[in-house]
Write a structure and sequence with these properties.
28% of the residues lie in helices and 17% in strands. By secondary structure, the chain is an alpha/beta fold.
């Protein structure tokens, strides 16, 4: 049986599924979790490997071609390489990537590569040890740098570094992150701070538009040009500094959203399909395990709920929005 393609009412074709394999994380980053921490779901409420594989198998018949494994911190999940090996073997799946904070990655990089993982995104919001500890509430930047080295050694390509840019927190490191691209093939992606699950005064005061990055390039006398060669660039607007081996990208969902060509759906660790990261819409697909036709129908019904845009800019401007924003934090959804 060949299922119908996943196309929404605005003509956007969806071929990309982001899968959160756990809501747990070994860090507690300031933009992802509240200071008091999170109450994580018990294991029995999270999807099993078999359940994830079943949902992805149906999704692949509907045109899903790309997967990204997220969390929480996905490497907290035991035997993740085995799950990845099963997912990459599903007919129709062409590309499987991982987003990780890197703390557990170095000793696992080789196994993950052997399992079929092709691409790695590593979160690194500061290269300064004390500041990294502050942002992550206790993380060790040396482990992330070791993970970066291991990822290069095993041959992941491309390797991307995700930097959530925050005013007054890490915006004075823009120059250092740009410099990383000069002598390596790394892609550094600056990401705007998003109000996922919270819209506190802290978010608004720390939000910084990514035009700041281009302004820093100009101030440093760096000549740069837009490029399109970064594989799996998704919503990133990519540039390369003249003479650099690597590149940098700007992901600005608040100041310049990319909703018009959104091609992604999300599967949460507790078995919900989410059509949009920001809005509260979600459908419980885990209840349909063992019923592939029902899983297919739930994908279509959920996609029909997807609005045209997410309206994060309205949150920044204190304006009324047309839908209800999610109350789940980023770690509960899978970013």
């Amino acid at each position: 049986m060949t299922a119908s393609i996943l196309q929404d009412r605005f003509g956007r074709r969806h071929d990309y599924l982001r899968i959160s394999v756990t809501d747990k994380c070994n860090l507690s980053c300031v933009y992802c979790m509240p200071e008091e921490g999170m109450e994580f779901e018990p294991e029995e409420k999270l999807m099993s490997d078999d359940e994830i594989v079943e949902v992805v198998t149906v999704a692949a018949r509907m045109g899903i071609r790309k997967l990204r494994i997220t969390g929480g911190e996905p490497l907290v999940r035991k035997n993740l390489d085995r799950l990845i090996s099963r997912l990459t073997a599903i007919p129709g799946i062409e590309d499987t990537a991982l987003t990780t904070n890197g703390m557990f990655l170095a000793p696992k990089a080789e196994k993950l590569k052997a399992a079929g993982l092709t691409r790695i995104n590593i979160s690194l919001d500061s290269m300064r040890a004390d500041r990294f500890r502050f942002i992550t509430r206790g993380g060790d930047v040396r482990k992330v740098l070791a993970a970066l080295k291991a990822s290069i050694q095993v041959g992941f390509d491309p390797i991307k570094i995700n930097v959530v840019l925050m005013k007054g927190i890490n915006d004075d490191e823009i120059d250092d992150f740009l410099a990383l691209t000069l002598n390596s093939k790394l892609t550094v992606r600056f990401i705007e701070y998003m109000p996922i699950g919270h819209e506190s005064k802290d978010w608004k005061s720390q939000y910084l538009p990514l035009s700041t990055v281009l302004e820093r390039c100009q101030a440093l006398g760096m000549s740069y040009q837009p490029i399109n060669e970064v594989y799996g660039n998704g919503p990133s607007e990519n540039y390369q500094i003249a003479g650099a081996q690597g590149s940098f990208g700007l992901i600005h969902p608040v100041s310049d959203h990319f909703c018009s060509n959104c091609n992604r759906l999300r599967l949460t660790a507790d078995g919900m399909i989410k059509p949009c990261l920001y809005w509260n819409y979600e459908t419980h697909v885990r209840s349909a395990i063992g019923q592939p036709e029902l899983i297919e129908r739930l994908f279509r019904e959920t996609l029909a709920l997807k609005p045209e845009t997410h309206e994060m800019a309205k949150a920044l401007a204190n304006q009324e929005r047309s839908h209800q924003p999610t109350v789940r934090r980023m770690s509960q959804i899978g970013g």
